[in-house]
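Thread: "does anyone have the structure for this chain?"

Original post by V.I.:
We have the sequence but no experimental structure in hand. Need at least a predicted one for the grant figures.
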Amino acid sequence: MIKASSSEGDIVLDPFCGCGTTITVAEKLKRKWIGIDITHLAISLMKHRLEDTFGNEVEYDVIGEPVDLAGAKELANQDRYQFQWWALGLVGARPAKSEQKKGPDKGIDGYIYSHDDLKKKETKEVIIQVKSGHMNISNIRDLRGVVKREEAQIGVFITLREPTKPMKTEAVSSGYYKSPLGHNYPKIQILTIKELLEGKKMDHPVRARGIDATFRKAERYGQKGEQKEMEL
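Reply from O.Q.:
Generated one for you, tokens below.
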């Protein structure tokens, strides 16, 4: 439909772009595009799809999501679920199914999956919890319990506020996950939104080895795109 109704260089508008099928096809066909969606969950999915398909060659702007700590706080005050989905997107995590709709907190907000054992095809898990309000050492203890219960390898606690010293101590005392690839990763990690916005990354096998299995991979398309826009 896009090929039949437009020419190279034309602008394609998708005001309900969801998982990004239209804008991905538009990019392949050398069209400029504008994608609009109301949720940060959808925007995160579109980012992953574009990255999987075009790698670092596609360029676009995202208009309407926080770019600093003040914007993050404002989003959290407006809608904590949108804040949670946005925060998960900062670390490349997939929202837990129970968290893709507004409802009770199940103790797991998101997942990152990887395969870090070259001899086995076993999927490894990083469990993500996001907190925008008050927190204390009990939150870290709870995360340790969830990681143990789910037999996950790593737990990451993302917080809008600065963690307390007891929280940091509890995280450090959790020890390490020893990867078959020969590297040790902190079992429980605390990351603030401020740190993530400044470029800090979690320490886990996916980042080190590029073996992310969190999202279903799209077919890679090798073609350099022009500057695009993605709107909320």
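V.I.: this helps a lot. DSSP finds nine helices and eleven strands in the chain.
O.Q.: and Residues 40-54 form the longest helix (15 residues).
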